[in-house]
Amino acid sequence: MVAVSEGVAESLGAAAGLPRDQIEVIHNPVRPMNPDAMTTEDRRALDGWLAGETRLIAVGTLKRAKGYDVLLRVLADLRGRRDARLLILGEGPLRGELEALARDLGVGESLWMPGFCPNPATFLKHAHVFVLSSNWEGFGNVIVEALAAGVSVVSTDCLSGSAEILDGGRFGRLVATGDTPGMAKAIEEAAHSPDDLDRLKARAEDFRPARQAACYLELVAGS
């Protein structure tokens, strides 16, 4: 049995009644994408976000698992102290609900949700902080993509994957799920003191497809 993270391995063992030593952990392979040139249409649509003092970005389907309702409350908290603006790349069933919540919180004009984007790297390069607000994950590929782009990461310490990718907080800031004040504080810290770009990119290299393929080959050869 192979699981993509320690958290998934533990959940699989508990659900299937399997001994933990029968489950191998091999992380997802993530191929960093080179950013495309931002189109004139994109620049026009995201002009307000690009002009922000603190540009936040999140990537993922607009669904309950991603915790975007918490992220919007974090944005409202930050807006009381700094010019924070949020770009969410993704589409999903909660679009209407999230747009309504943004209006209720008074952050509608600080939020951009242009829909699905095939190459987030194009926009990650313009962000100050990448935020993962998920309630749960299997691994969290997009964290690796953010590291590869050299963007400081703030993530929930959710089940599972985030803490493994960030090595317990060595390569990004971890906060409890649903902790609005804690996430706002971590974002401010990341914006004020960005992580070393080369160090983040080096961490992303640990998840390149060739390295994960080598783990699979070793597992098969060893069996």
Summarize the biggest pleated sheet.
Answer: 6 strands, parallel
Distance between the termini: 12 Å
**At CATH's second level, what is the architecture of the largest domain?**
3-Layer(aba) Sandwich
Low-confidence runs of at least 5 consecutive residues: none
Average pLDDT: 96
Give the strand order, joined by hyphens, for the main sheet. 5-4-3-6-7-8
How is the CATH topology of the largest domain named? Answer: Rossmann fold
Q: Report the portion of residues in β strands.
A: 5-15%
Q: What structural category characterises the helix and strand content? A: alpha/beta
Beta strands, count: 8
The helix count comes to 11
Number of domains: 2
Shape: globular
- Helical content band: 40-55%
Radius of gyration, in Å, reads: 18 Å
List its traits.
11 helices, 15% strand, two-stranded parallel ribbon, Rossmann fold, alpha/beta, single chain, 2 domains, six-stranded parallel sheet, 223 residues
Task: Note down, in words, how this protein is organized.
- The protein has 223 residues and is an alpha/beta fold.
- It has two domains: 1-29 and 208-223, no CATH class; 35-205, Rossmann fold (3-Layer(aba) Sandwich).
- It has helices spanning 6-16, 40-45, 47-50, 68-79, 95-105, 121-124, 141-148, 162-165, 180-192, 197-205, 209-222, and strands spanning 2-3, 24-25, 54-59, 84-89, 111-115, 129-132, 152-156, 173-175.
- Strands 5-4-3-6-7-8 form a six-stranded parallel beta sheet, sandwiched between helices. A two-stranded parallel sheet has the order 1-2.
- Strand 1 (2-3), helix 1 and strand 2 form a beta-alpha-beta unit.
- Helix 7 (141-148) crosses helix 10 (197-205).
- It is globular, with a radius of gyration of 18 Å.
- The model has no long low-confidence stretch (mean pLDDT 96).
